[in-house]
Design a protein that fits this description.
This protein is mainly beta and 116 residues long. Helices cover 0% and strands 53% of the residues.
Length: 116
C-alpha cells in the first residue's frame, strides 16, 4: 500500500510561483502530478520515473519542474510563471508498475488558484 499526501497549494497572481510537495510512503516505480480544472477532465502535468527521467505536458514545458527526493520519498512540482489556466486541483499519483500503465495510488489533492 502506498499513501500520498500533497501540500503546497495556494493562491497566487499570474506570473507567480508555487512549489507542490507530495510525501509518499512505500516504494513506487513511477510518480506523477495530475490536475483537474473545474468542468474539465483530469490531465497529466508531469511524470517521473525512479531512474530520474521525466516527461511534461506541452503547456508546462520550461515553466514547471518535477523532482524527487529519494531519501525522504517526496515528489515535488516547482511551478513558475503561472497562468490563470493553471488553476486546478493538483493530484499526486504513483504506481509500482511502469509509467502510463495505470495509476494505483492517489493523494487527496491540493488546490492551486492563479488570478489574473
Amino acid at each position: 500500500q502506498v499513501q500520498l499526501q500533497e501540500s503546497g497549494g495556494g493562491s497566487v497572481q499570474s506570473g507567480g510561483s508555487l512549489k507542490l510537495s507530495c510525501a509518499a510512503s512505500g516504494d513506487t516505480r513511477c510518480m506523477a502530478w495530475f490536475r483537474q480544472a473545474p468542468g474539465k477532465e483530469r490531465e497529466v502535468v508531469a511524470d517521473m520515473r525512479m531512474d530520474g527521467s521525466s516527461t511534461y505536458t506541452d503547456s508546462v514545458k520550461g515553466r514547471f519542474t518535477i523532482s524527487h527526493d529519494g531519501v525522504n520519498n517526496i515528489l515535488y512540482l516547482q511551478m513558475t510563471r503561472l497562468l490563470p489556466e493553471a488553476t486546478a486541483m493538483y493530484y499526486c499519483t504513483a504506481t509500482r508498475a511502469l509509467c502510463g500503465s495505470g495509476w494505483g495510488y492517489w493523494g487527496q489533492g491540493t488546490q492551486v488558484t492563479v488570478s489574473s
